[in-house]
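Can anyone check this?
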Amino acid sequence: MLENIKTFASTFFVTGDPMIYGADVSIVLVSLAALFVLTYFKKWGYVWREWITTVDHKKIGTMYFTAALLMLFRGGVDALLMRVQLAAPDMKLLHSEHYNEIFTTHGTIMILFMAMPFMFALFNWVVPLQIGARDVAFPFLNSVSFWLFFFGAMLFNLSFVIGGSPDAGWLSYPPLSENAFSHGPGQNFYIWGVQISGIGSLATGINFLVTILKMRAPGMKLMKMPMFTWSVLAACIIIIFAFPVLTISLALLFMDRFFGAHFFTIDGGGNPMMYVNLIWMWGHPEVYIVVLPAFGILSEVVSTFSKKSIFGYKSMVFAMMVISVVSYFTWVHHFFTMGAGADVNTFFAISTMAIAIPTGVKVFNWLFTMFRGRIEVSQPMLWVMGFIPCFVVGGATGVMLAVAPADYQYHNSYFLVAHFHQTLIGGVVFPYLAGLYYWWPKIFGFKLNDRLGKWAFWLWNIGFYVCFMPQYALGFMGMTRRLYTYGWDMGWAPLNMVSTVGAFLMGVGFLFQGWQIIHGILYAERSNATDSWGTGRSLEWSIPSPPPVYNFAVVPQVKGFDDWYLTKEEMKKPGYKAEKPQLESIHMPKNSGIPFVMGACWFLAGFGLTMETAFSWMIVPGVIGLIGVGLCMFARSFSYDTDYYIPVDEVKRTEASLGRVV
């Protein structure tokens, strides 16, 4: 009996690595601490009522942000482990298999479980407020989306200590991801974790597309929408058409592994390049899914802190929509070396270069907005100014990679690694951090400490260039990707050591940001001020901070682009007299526990189908989980008591407590 238990434990849990044991201890201690705090302070009911069952878009945004912050930490630790391994030749920190697992989880977490929830956090925090809506179009579906993301991310991260992490790369190319090379459950964790969270992402894209098209305040025509809302609309269009491709790709790969199909196995008549095409049909539009909202953030921040309306509004809108279309016609540039032929390579080289044109238009628009503006160098504006040179270099190296003959030299080298991080950190993380600092006082009612923020900014920026500039040179020197060790004779050691120092500087910058958030929660001065920066231009700055559950006591009547700025200018005129608002009962959705239960059922289904490869009886909880998902959908179909009304008296009391006279 004891021997059977030992055999089960050694197969079920990951063993033999001190770092894994450290992670086991950390998970247990953190879990026990959370349980103790919730029990000791009697907060179980509060957490259930206010967070787990919430359909309030603002709270869902906060949960997305919290998850993104945790995933940034996890993905950052993976990055530092890789950089330590490569800091000098013949390092022994990670063996080859563990290194493969680390770079696989690092890439997957940073793109799908950090950048995507960070983006969705900003969607939820900002879009309904910018368009004058009281919630998103489908609040229940919004909650389902979050819990699918959450449980998908948890399932993927569980592989670190149970079953084993995936090791076929962050896009899991066959044949490495087929049973012959990844026979354990690790690859199944990848498939189901990404699949479950991807369904949630698709639902979010549908939800916000409908929200923007159908729930704008009266008078807000499409060409009066704020730039961030336009960027979200463009990103949602890509999500709706790109994520089904990811769903199908992973489903076919799972059928190869689970049912013995041969979609991507050559010896069974399949073709692994079909998977590579499919995954990049999703993968390259995915880059623009996370970049387009960043462009919208930059437009809002530049306009606010230059104290000018955005330069070339129509050209900015046109550029974003062009990118949302052309992004579907660039995927082959990821494998020019496949041998598709000169005609195919030429088409995708030209389309890749062409997409740089609308991107460049926006950079010039931001610069012209700042030109002769009264620029205020606030924390959000610092990140904008850090973004512009970084993204210009990333765009230029992208055009270099778009030239098919040159790509034959750059392909699979560290030049590509440097370019990718230049665009994804400089072009996504920096703008998202600008948006975080910009909208933080609106959502939480206080600003983050300026001094700590500047330390974080400079450590991030200096660390970034110290880390990734040497990697361009390493690529030219012949260093390839996914290399876990190298010899002294290669001459790569000095630049790799410099790169590792830069990575740790960025890590210290992240710690300053964590300190900044904790400091703000404990010590920052709270304010219900509507316009926290004093120069806000769109509707979110017309309501108290943080906003009440219903956002707007009276749905605004929009007069034009930058409506709040126009209202403030009107208020400055002599004799201005505000109209007394006509309050009415406000219709709001009720909280629901079904999305959480549905997410948990998806987790159970994914875990059972993942571990079935190691223990055949695990198919039982997998099937039970899928039945649970169906029952949750059935229960929702017969839920009729799903909304309520906030009476006028309660609205008046809420507004009065926020310092508003109604």
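Reply from J.R.: I decoded it. The chain has one domain: 42-658.
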